[in-house]
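Protein 1 of 2
SEQ + STRUCT:
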Amino acid sequence: MEAFILGTGGMMPLPGRFLTSVLLRREGDLLLFDCGEGTQISLKSLNLRWKKITTIFISHTHADHITGLPGILMLSSQVDRSEPLTIIGPPKIREYIESSRRVLDMFINYEIIIKEIENPEISSVVYETPDFTVRSIPLNHSKVCVGYVLEEKDRPGVFFPEKARELDIPVGPLWSKLQNGIDIEHEGKIIESSEVMGDSRKGRKFSFVTDTAYVPEIAEDVKDSDLFICEGMFEHALLSSAREKKHLTSTQAAKIAKKAGGIKKMGLIHYSPRYTERDLKNLLKEAKEVFPETFLCRDRMRLKIPYED
């Protein structure tokens, strides 16, 4: 699994800093989190197969998080897309998409599935596959806003072929069943998968939080994340402005990560346009004083999310 940072800015795009968007690639799944202006440019620059995006998760309907959507929807009609595209977000996302299609007279030749989160004030599973789930988590912004947490389901444990041989189980379909956690019958005896498999292994966890006032409860949702992408819009000196606008300082983001526990890395994102590239070092410095495993997200950065050893 790997994450691609497509944009890191808030409010307005800048040269070299597009608006916030992150693409997560997991096996054959391409999942997009927010779709700010400039998203298409970063996708093209990274040579990603953006037409294979299956699901787009929108945090809220402020312009700097959704203005890239119309372009993605229209462009997908030019590449012989046959698979449906699912878009998930809080209330108003359906109205935004449908009005954009109407006003722009979009030609769409594939199915668009829109799922509005019915109760964004509570954490709930909004997307699920046999291998992972995505939950929305409530945030506190000037408009209804949610974060997202992707959690892989536990994987089967390590298969020990020597134990299978000791039980005289022939190589082939029976081994495959045991590896998939299925008990088998062999030579009149029931052999349980646990006899030849180690303990199940923990899956990976990715969390995405942007545009929120400081909410301590976020920590419980994002704990044990292998990668936590979190907004750090302001430095601590602008705490009063952050509170007024319901955004996080980099220090507050770090406090969430520290309180959560188990987070391997936190990437700051969604910077105020007031900060130059040099200024961003101050945001990083303040965050690292609280949570040392913090780094600055940069446009078109690629981040691998490996399994635990």
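Protein 2 of 2
SEQ + STRUCT:
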Amino acid sequence: MIVMAFVLSAIAQTDKEVKLFLNEEQTHWVKGTGLGQIWVRYTDLNPGSTIFGTPKDKTFDVGLRRVRYQVMGQITDQIFVYTQFGINSFGSLSGRKPGLFLHDVTAEYAVVKTKFNLGAGLHGWNGTVRFSSSSVGSILGLDLPYIEESTNDLTDQFVRKLGIYAHGQLGGLNYRVSASNPFPIQTALSPVPTLPENVTNTAYFSTAAPALNYQGYFFWQFWDRETTQIPYMTGTYLGKKRVLNIGAGFSTQDHAVEYRESGSSQVLQKPLNQFGLDLFYDTPLNKQTGTALTVYAAVIDYDFGPNYLRVAGAMNPANGVNQGGTFNGPGNNIPLIGTGQVYYSQIGYLMKKDLLGKLGTLQPYGQLILSDYERVEKPLAVYDIGINWLQAGHRSKLSLDYQSRPVLTQGTSEKLIKNAADPRKGMLVLQYQFSF
């Protein structure tokens, strides 16, 4: 009975979280959370796709997009620690028995409470725009805005790097800055393409020892203040906050990419530079019925060197391509990140809270990526339309999403163009998310 009384006095439960308190004043605490995202998917594969050499044009598969666990704690009045581990993208073509890996391990000291916190470790305090550090549990759409994760798993560990950072709130201004060691591309689990012999005017990530990566993101909060104890930004508040933010950020790394100019065999190195501006608007429309609106828009300038363009696909269901392939490569690959400008937007409407009675409510949404890349003749558009069935907010959410992506091929000039015979492909995903 004494042990039970201690446990009950040490644990506080609300509708949001369970905390274990470490002192009588309940100012020191530890808590844990968990999340899982299960995908059931039908994909119209890129032309020429193969699975272990077998030609395929369509696939059905089931996968685990994410499984995450967080443990964090306010250990003293000044010291906050944060850890996250889990797996990403465990699909039918993944190696069996995947191991959990570290996403975050940080410790920070509150030099001046709320105003100036200084920390270090494996962190996600990233620059450029809001969703360069995105909360996976509160995404508006099906998946993270990966267009804003420009070096994902190339020179980072799923957007995390080892480094130092500072963050805080100064009046209406929320800021974060960091200096980190990018991972060498040689240590990536999937091979990162490097500069081929005799290729000119096309940049690739450098094989040289990486320089420090400096990042920053600053946003002004006009209405409610957001909580930024951890780096990952909320996608939609489901009407629980009234938020209007305007942000700006950057990321830079010296001699990060390399290339050759036309008619030269000399390899040149240049910095990786990116700058972004964005706006986030999330507000209840009718507090009595529970309706709400979420809007986000960003413009980003990416400079990875001449004609840089990377293709990637989430939990790719194909692993090869035959002679009928295109620039996209296999499966669901998209021409994703490149030198040029990106315009990204999303909008979601939360319907009334009792729309489905005790079964929750619905939240339709749409997303658009418009990319104007140096290597492509005309701007590219990737769009998603979908709907969230919110059975218990983000804790129990079923999402249905359709994504349409462009297919590129080499044109008569050096520029890439849409594949005339098959210019677009689609993917339909049903996802169930649970979190606690």
